[in-house]
Amino acid sequence: MANGHSTAIGGPSSGGLMDSKAAQWVRANFFSSWWNTALSLVLLYIVGKTLIWFLGWGVFNAVWYGPAADCRAAKGIGACWAVFPEKWRFILFATYPYDEQWRPALSCVIFFALYVYSALRVNWNGRLPLVWIVGLLAIAFLMWGGTFGLSFVPQERWGGLVLTLILSTFGIALAFPLAILLALGRRSHMPAIKTLCVVYIELIRGVPLISLLFMASVMFPLFLPEGITIDKLLRAQIAIIGFAGAYLAEVVRGGLQALPKGQYEAADALGLSYWQATRMIILPQALRMVIPPMVNTFIGLFKDTSLVLIIGLLDILNAAKTAVSDPAWRGFGPDVYFGVSLIYFVFCFAMSKYSQQVEHELNRDRHR
Amino acid sequence: MRMSLNDPTFRAIFWQVVVIGGFGLIVWWLISNTLRNLEIRAIATGWDFLTREAGFAIGESVIEFEPEHSYGRALWVGILNTLRVAIVGIVLATILGTLIGIGRLSKNWLVSRACSVYVEFMRNLPLLVQLFFWWAMFQDAFPGPREALQPLPGLFFSNRGIKMPIPAEHWIHAWMGVAFLAGIGASYFMKRWAAARQAATGEQFPVFAATLGLVLGLPFVVWLFGGAPVALDWPVMRGFNFQGGLTMTPEFAALLVGLVTYTAGFIAEIVRAGILAVPHGQTEAASALGIRKGPMLQLVILPQALRVIIPPMTSQFLNLTKNSSLAVAIGYPDLVSIANTTLNQTGQAIEGISIIMAAYLTVSLSISVFMNWYNKRIAFKER
Prior knowledge:
heterodimer, A: mainly alpha, MetI-like fold, 2 domains, 71% helix, 0% strand, globular, B: 383 residues, alpha+beta, 4-stranded antiparallel β-sheet, two-stranded antiparallel sheet, 8 strands
């Protein structure tokens, strides 16, 4: 990125080694002026020292395997990764019945397959929604069971990684149609519908997600008629869908606004009805334009599912928190949270890199 | 008007009536269910509980609070605690984020790379995980007060939080605050006067230096008049804990560090985009006109960069304020945490959640009204 500044080097080159490309690059980027040199040296010292400390703490002096007593002996010197071989089944699957944990594991695999399938652009066609419906139904069947010889597992016992994936994936999948309706409604010429959508979007975006989750946890039961109860996971899922819908709606609206007016007029001129024009002309173009900000919203939502911990659902973060509250392993919080954060990082980083790549490809399309 | 769905006007009215009617029906259904459920559970709605005795203690508070005080006062303590962490957090996150955003554009490879790595990490990890991490650092990794870490003289890190020295209490501090506000007011009028004079005579006035002098100089002069008190209140170990100095509880410190480092990652990207949004030709054109470096920044670069920076920046400030509600997970007594305790104790779920939502909506909506006004004011005036 900064390679273009090699002209900034002063002074004649003084022989063999200093003429090489690498040496020029180093001089241009690290030692182009006295201020730059000082900055480089100070930063090199700090980064080097941190890296050495981190390698010592996290790799060489770390306890990778063994009982908690080994970790206590190494406390302050090395990280305690031994908690993961001991607790990984709990962190990944939480309180799901131990013998049945292949079911959430298989569900996670189906989720990954769905993500990879939808990420490939050759699959962006009419079959995609169908694949998703089949995949999600398979996951629901695996998790609940109750037929075909699988024992029934109530939702209170679901937890761990699969719960995080369920909340975020179903949240995105169902928030999406809601967001499109809200965005279209906000741009509608009918004042009543427009007002309703604006009020909904602004209201939801104005309050923190926690307040919506609290609402789902303590107020939803009051809203329902006597005798009907829905469990906590579903209530949290509804809150997350409603929340994500409002944010996604604003992203979609951005795409609708960016579409040239001629597209709307051309669709009208062809005699298409509102819904025909929306489905065949407007949405395909508008949505394509907002893929990068949409993926950013997805990343935000994926991170935000960790908030269900506050209303007591055992997502992966809460499972990790519960794992370190075991008296034997108490005191290794930073180590465990560090490990769990890597899982979140892998998902979010993959999404953000993917969105950058798609943005790049779409821009190439447009320039051709 | 023909009464047919093929008539656009009739169709619009028809669908609006259908939507409003359906919406009204759903709302009526929810309200009637709620009323019946409240009746069955014998919960009395209303705001009477606000004056009742709270009966719980609050870990830290800006104003005095005892368990004998009312729920209303407890909630007010929560609002103040939220504002405290949000305001301090916004100031620190802006400073850190701006530094990192500028650092990402540095020609020094090491600096720009280090800043990129920071931004990638912060943006791709959930805030809650980060909060837990910092909180666990205080709980599990830091020693007790007796063996507190002391990176700088007088600055202590322990599992009781952060301790640092502050200027000892002195009557002159209040007057310094007054002088600071007076300085801000005076520089506003000075700026108007300078602009009017320049328009009339063409003579320039060093506005920036004079503003700095007024805002910082006035309190300094007042401080000198007060006898220039330099005494500091140092934290000292006495018995099992520290006495004196400024205390940050582990909860406040973890929340603040988490919010600041997380939000700074987003602010850095906004600042970077804002700086990149000003084309290099603008700088060249300004120097071709003979504008010096200082006025160039003030008159050419910043007005254009800020137009790009300020709208997303405000929404980050708003996000930080809303994210401070995660305090409930680590036990810092913010508004959500105290409202949660209140609704658990009294069973007034609807009122408790309404208070939380009303408080945040007030802040959010007033900021968006301000933003709309600001956007209109700074929008390009095309002639």
